[in-house]
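Hey, can you fold this?
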Amino acid sequence: MSQSRKHRGYRTQTIQAAYLKSHGFPHAEPTGAGRQGSDILGTIGIDWEIAARRGLPILEKMRQLEERQQDGKLGIILLRPDGMGEQTIERWPFIVCNADGVRLLRQAGYGDPLED
């Protein structure tokens, strides 16, 4: 991997951590380049995988999350597509597994009410 791609990936981690801090996750911190595990720390119960590169490496990133899956953690892939700078962070897509997405929607009040 080129140095510029590593730098862009780490910069994306830093941007996302700052965004999370300002949106209810005050302990969010980027992990830095080359570290195993979640790309953002301090968001209890969430495993972040950051993808800041050309193309859609969805399957590759899903496999990375699966390899380190921990019970109860929500795996999220954050994509920073080429051409989307820091000012567009609110439009960067993130991906969760279908089962997790449906559970989150139900918990947010969509669909039939959850049974207690």
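Oh, and this one too while you're at it.
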Amino acid sequence: MPIALADLLTEQQVILRLSSRKPANAIREIVDVLASDIGGRKIANPEVFLEQVLARERTHPSIVENGVVFPHARTDLVDEIVIGVGRSRAGIRFGENQHRANLIFVIGVPERLLSDYLVCVGTIARLAKDDAIRSRLLNVETAREFVDALTADSV
């Protein structure tokens, strides 16, 4: 049975005001939050995980759609899917087309959970396409409201 978003995301994994303006720095900021406390899910080596995500971004840049981007790594450094989210009201330019991403979902996934990962990203992407949900995600004031807005319709 696929993993529900509500089981993957806690308010500790959400940064509502990214201080970074460059993609690599924003990804680092999100990985730092993941490394500190992610509800029991662990990244074995956060620095190596960060380098894996950045290496993938260099070779296969993430595509921004609807102001949302999904930098990720398939890695043996995690036993379960891990997700961290950063929000930038101004947006951070990602990828070859340099479109602005307002919501950045950094994801780590073990190879054995590839199908769960695809369901997870598909669910987030579908929710982000919904103007009302995306507007709530961009405008909520607390991390708890962000998680609630993202998970309310995805269970």
